[in-house]
Amino acid sequence: MTRSAVPGRAWLSMLSGKLPRAWRWGLLVLLITGCGVLLGIRLLATHQVGRHPLSALRFALGQHDIARQQQQLYQAVTVALREAGLETNAYMREDLQVQRRGRESWVVRRHRLVLPVEVSLQSVETRLTNVLRQVPHSILARRTRQQKTVVSVALTTGIDGAAADIFVLTQTRAIASPMARTAALSPSDAVLQPPLARVAIVIDDMGWDLPMAQALLALNAPLSFAIIPRSPYQYETVEAVQQHGRDILLHLPMEPHGYPRVNPGEQALLSDMTSSELTTRLQVALQELPMAVGVNNHMGSRLTEDSQVMRVVMHELQQRGLFFLDSRTSSHSQAFQVAREMGVRAGQRQVFLDHDGQPEQISHRLHQLLSLARKRGRAIGIGHPRMETLHALQQLIPELHAAGIEIVPVSHLVD
Ligand SMILES: [Zn+2]
Fold first, then answer.
1. Residue 130: CA atoms inside 13 Å, Cβ hemisphere, count?
2. 328: left (phi over 0), alpha (psi -120 to 50) or beta
C-alpha cells in the first residue's frame, strides 16, 4: 500500500503541508481536544432533566440496579405511611409491566393510596417526596386530577429518567374551598350558583424560551402551557411548569396550508401520511411529554380540515383519556367536531391574544376574551411567549381577580 493510499495520513500531510514534526503533533492534539469538547457540548445539550448525560451507558452497564432500589424505596415508603397514621389496607400495589433497558430489568408498579378524609393529602405527598430524597429515585412527573369531589395526585418516580413506580394518592373530599366547589359543580348545580365566568389562557409554542416560561409561571394565575416536543428547553420547561402544578399540553405540529413553504417543524403530522404513520408520529410525540393532560395543534390549518385524519388522531387520544383543544388555525377545522363525535373531551380556542404583537391590540383581545367569558360563562384564549403578552397579562390579572373572573387550567374548560 502506498503512503497516499492511507486516507488519514494523506489528509494529515495535506493539512500540515511542510510543517515541522512537532507542529504536526501539536495540530493532531488540538484536533483531538476539539472533538472531545464538541462531544461534551453535544452530551450536555441532550441532557434531560432527571437524566444523566451518560444515561444510555449507565443502563448498558446495569449501574442503577433499579429492581433492588425499588425494594429499598418500598421499605422507606411503608415506614413513612405508618408514621402518617395510615392503615395498611389503604395501600395497594400492582405490577403493570416489565421494562428492560440495557442490562437493567424492572417491573413498573402502581401504588394506590386511598386517604381517609382526616389525613391531609398534602402532608402524605410531602412525606413521599421526603422519602424520595433519601433514595436514588426522583419524581419524573406529577399529575393532579379532580372529578366531582374525588381528588387525586399521581407521582411518577424513577431513576435516571426511567419510570419505575407510580404513586396515586386519592381522597374524597367534602366540598370546601371555592376552587374545589367550582370544579365539583355538575351542570344541574350550576343554576344554583351565581354565574362565575371562567377563563383559560393557554400559552403555545413553549420550550424555546426558558426565562419567558419562568416569567409566565411567576404570574398569579394558573395559565396552561402547550409545549413543542423536542424543543430545546422542553425538559426544563416541563419541570418548571410541573413545579407550579400547571396544565401541560402537547403542542402537536400539524401541516398548515402553504406547506412546505410554511414549516410546522420536525415530526409534524402531514396529510399524505397513512393512518399508521400518523399514529406513530403522535405516539412518539406523546412519549416525549407523558405528563401532558391534553393536546392542541401547532399550525395545522390544512390537516385539521381533514376529518379522516382527525379521526385517527382522536382515536389515539381516546385510548389515553387525553383531551383535544382545537387551536382553530382554520375556520374549516373539523377537529372539535370529530372529537365530540368520538367522545373525546374537547375545547376550542375562542380568541388569539397576540397575533398582532402591538400592546394595545393584545390588551384589546384580552378584554374581548373576558367579555366573551362573561357572556358565555367561559372562554379559552391562546397566547404566545412574547414580552408584550407577558406585560398585558401582568396588567390584566389583578383586574380579573377584582372583577370576580376566575382563570382556570384549560383542563377545567374542556368537556
Ligand atoms: Zn404553535
1. 12
2. left
pLDDT at residue 83 tops 60:
yes
**CATH class as words, domain 195-412:** alpha beta
Identify the residue with better confidence: 40 or 71: 71
Cα dist. 189→104, 181, 183, 376 in Å? Answer: 52, 10, 11, 17
pLDDT band at 75, cuts 50/70/90? confident
Ligand 1: centre distance to CA 63 (Å): 40
* Residue 232 CA: distances (Å) to CA of 210, 244, 252, 340: 9, 20, 15, 34
Distance in Å, CA 194 to ligand 1 centroid: 35
Fold classification of 66-175 (topology level): Beta Polymerase; domain 2 (3.30.460)
pLDDT band at 35 (very low <50, low <70, confident <90, very high): low
One-letter amino acid at 25 equals W
Find the 96 Cα to ligand 1 centroid distance in Å: 35
Q: Are 44 and 53 in contact (CB under 8 A)?
A: yes
Locate cell 417526596: which residue?
129
pTM comes to 0.56
Spans of all domains in the chain: 66-175, 195-412
CA of 151 to the centre of ligand 1 (A): 31
**CATH fold match for the domains 66-175 and 195-412:** no
Distance 225 CA to ligand 1 centre (A): 11
pLDDT mean over 13-24: 70
CB distance 342 to 315 below 8 Å: yes
Whole-number pLDDT of residue 140: 81
pLDDT at 115 over 60: yes
- Tell me the mean pLDDT in the region 139-165: 78
Once rounded to an integer, what is the mean pLDDT over residues 85-93?
72
